Amino acid sequence: MGERAASVSVISVALALFLAGTGWGAPLQKKSLSLEDARKAGAAAAVEAKKNKWNVAIAVVDDGGYLLYFERLDETLIASADLAIGKARTAVIYKRPSKALEDALNGGSYAILAYPNTVPREGGLPILIDGKVAGGIGVSGVKSSEDAQAAKAGVDGLTLK
To answer: Is the pLDDT of residue 10 over 80?
Structure first.
């Protein structure tokens, strides 16, 4: 092996060891919601809504805020469809319940009204796997506290690791 090839080889090994020690170059490991997970969450939220005779729309989104599952129960307002999706997306992109943004807005943080893709209204919850946001669920159609109750039933209907 030539001198140049040997030094390139030593540099390559050193760089690989450095990157491995810093986490750079390591493959990204993240958990995500499956379609089956989304269906389970949506079904659990629907059971809660039907039990209480609530006409709601239910949306489950992935960790990017994209729709995985949607259901609009009979007699639910059409407007509730977009609101449910928006609440789920809000929970994902801000990594907190949509109620947190509603509370901030009610506290005078009016700039929230200019945030893109944000529905600052209770009823959206993040779905966590190993403490990381893997998706979200949003419910709309009844009082916001009831929307949140149905969304929580959806989250509780999952057993994610």
So the answer is: no
